[in-house]
Amino acid sequence: MEFNSNVPIYLQIADFIRRKIAGKEWHPGEQLPTVRQLGLDLKVNPNTVQRAFTLLEQEGYVESKRTAGRFVTMDKKNLEKLKTELAYDEVLKFLVKMKELGFEKDKVLLLVNEKWEDKDGREVK
Fold first, then answer.
1. Where are the beta strands (DSSP E) in the chain?
2. Residue 1, SS3?
3. 56 and 62 Cβ atoms separated by less than 8 Å
4. Are the C-beta atoms of 13 and 44 separated by less than 8 Å?
5. Is residue 51 helix, strand or coil?
6. Are 70 and 64 in contact (CB under 8 A)?
7. pTM for this predicted structure
8. Would you state the pLDDT for residue 67?
9. Residues in Cβ contact with 9 at an 8 Å cutoff, skipping those fewer than 6 apart
10. Please, which residues bridge with residue 117 across strands?
11. What is the rounded distance in angstroms from the CA atom of residue 125 to the CA atom of residue 118?
């Protein structure tokens, strides 16, 4: 993982974990890597990882079980909220770029509808 020097590392780690959860790489109820292991994997101080986990626990995406470690929440409502928030962020970035290119709303919607399916009529994955 490459870090952006303009954003605190713990926030970038929290975003990394959110995306793993929303993308279903880490499933509801699944145990997460330990603070120490994730720190080693990402080449950061474990305290930084701890700070990211604390934030994610406050947001309700991660649950701590005293002696067993941390787990992805089983709360489907929170997980759906996470996916929606990440989607809004991506849509906003896309729309800013389209406006910078001078596209109007109708043209952007047309482009999205055209590209929603690939050339063989299958949905893009």
1. 62-65, 69-72
2. coil
3. yes
4. yes
5. helix
6. yes
7. 0.81
8. 85
9. 3, 44, 48
10. 123
11. 9
What are the distances in angstroms from CA 82 to CA 19, 65, 73? 9, 21, 11
Q: What secondary structure does DSSP assign to 83-110, as a single string?
A: HHHHHHHHHHHHHHHHHHTT--HHHHHH
Q: Work out the burial of residue 11: count CB atoms within 10 Å of its CB; fewer than 13 is exposed, 13-18 middle, 19 or more buried.
A: middle
Q: Per-10-residue mean pLDDT for the chain, 125 residues long?
A: 93 97 95 96 96 97 92 96 95 96 94 78 62
Question: What's the pLDDT at 115?
Answer: 84
Q: Give the pLDDT score at 114.
A: 85
Q: For residue 45, what are the CA distances in angstroms to 31, 53, 123? A: 21, 13, 42
Rounded to whole angstroms, the Cα distance separating 99 from 121 reads 28
